[in-house]
Amino acid sequence: MSDELYDVAIIGAGPAGLQAAIHAARRRVKTIVLGKIEASALYKAHLENYFGVPGKKEGKEILEIGLSQAKNFGAKHLSLDVVKAELSGNTFYIELEDGQKINSLTVIIATGVTRRKGKLKGEKALVGKGVSYCVDCDGFFFRGLPVAVIGNGSAAAHGALTLSKIASDVYLVSPKLDIPEALKNDLKKQKVKLITVKPKEILGEKEVEGLLLENEQTLEVKGVFIEEGAKGALQLATSLGVMLDPENMTYIQVDRTQKTNVPGVFAAGDVCGPPLQVAKAVGEGCIAGLNAAEEANRRRKQNEA
């Protein structure tokens, strides 16, 4: 466990997260940004019709400038995915994909939303019947049963490791296997079976009965967990006890100060719902950064009293 205590930990390095970092750091509080700018939806897109920006600008360039600004104001950046976040007392503990642990007085969730290109055949019909998007939430229900985890990032690897202590057999279906070497070694130690073939279809009628791969091999599993990239907003929100919108259970609920229902946890950007626009993300990042800094100062004074 790291002994270093941050005032504001920002999960996500897109427009909302970087703007939050700029404003928090300007308030002279200890600020850290966790995440990869290339994971932002803006990274491979372009920006136009944005106040003060003439013509088109490459998203990558905008993000790199934003990150540089945040660093110039004193924010630290770790280009690593977050795999776990939890609260103990009035301190948040955040675990990164390389095993590092960050302690912080406040957290801003600015991870954006997952934009999956398409669901697997059979996926939609079997959600809640063996298909899950959260190992931490549903893993227990598959005690002693064979399961598969689909994904290419650190979240998928950590999900497979968690399930290795619960399920009878665990397959990590990861065509790109884009995870740190240390995690690969941990997976082998826990006897997680690595599959580098793309999944084709989730089999079953009333419940999951197997996972068909593109090479026509069938994995006989009872559960399929889809964990793509970094931990998404829903998983982080669930682990921290943050409320989602009651209608769709898709976005994080916040008030006008970007506070969630959990003291010390703020959210900004696409995770808070539409319109999914950079202008909105930047504005909410500003508000979240300022209010998180204020809350962190209050907590530090409380701890020193």
TrEMBL record:
InterPro entries: FAD/NAD-bd_sf, FAD/NAD-binding_dom, Ferredoxin-NADP_redctase_2. GO terms for molecular function: oxidoreductase activity. Gene3D superfamilies: FAD/NAD(P)-binding domain (3.50.50.60). Keywords: Flavoprotein, Oxidoreductase. It comes from the Bacteria. Residues 6-285 form the FAD/NAD(P)-binding domain. PANTHER family: THIOREDOXIN REDUCTASE 1-RELATED-RELATED (PTHR48105). This is FAD-dependent pyridine nucleotide-disulfide oxidoreductase. It comes from Thermodesulfatator indicus (strain DSM 15286 / JCM 11887 / CIR29812). The lineage of its organism: Bacteria, Pseudomonadati, Thermodesulfobacteriota, Thermodesulfobacteria, Thermodesulfobacteriales.
